[in-house]
């Protein structure tokens, strides 16, 4: 089953993406699959913050882990709604999620 996720790129264009819930993907991998400008330099290990995004609406997300919290404490352009895309697995709970890509560091 796919869920709809909206992602605003750095030019302000909103992309409506169909995200598969049966492939163990995360938001960073989804962005890369749709060729959105997300580096994912560390390969999804919460060690680079190049997939940082801002959560724009109230959708149930998994708790932020220690690694993600530590990385965001050192990253640029961090806001109260910042998350690392690599730490958000795509599940049915994400239906309707709206994100904005953070500026590149």
Automatic annotation (TrEMBL):
The keyword Iron applies. It comes from the Bacteria. Its cofactor is [2Fe-2S] cluster. One of its GO terms (molecular function) is 2 iron, 2 sulfur cluster binding. One of its GO terms (biological process) is P450-containing electron transport chain. Keywords: 2Fe-2S, Iron, Iron-sulfur, Metal-binding. InterPro entries: 2Fe-2S_ferredoxin-like_sf, Adrenodoxin-like, Beta-grasp_dom_sf. Gene3D superfamilies: 3.10.20.30. SUPFAM superfamilies: 2Fe-2S ferredoxin-like. The keyword Iron-sulfur applies. This is Ferredoxin. It comes from Flavobacterium commune.
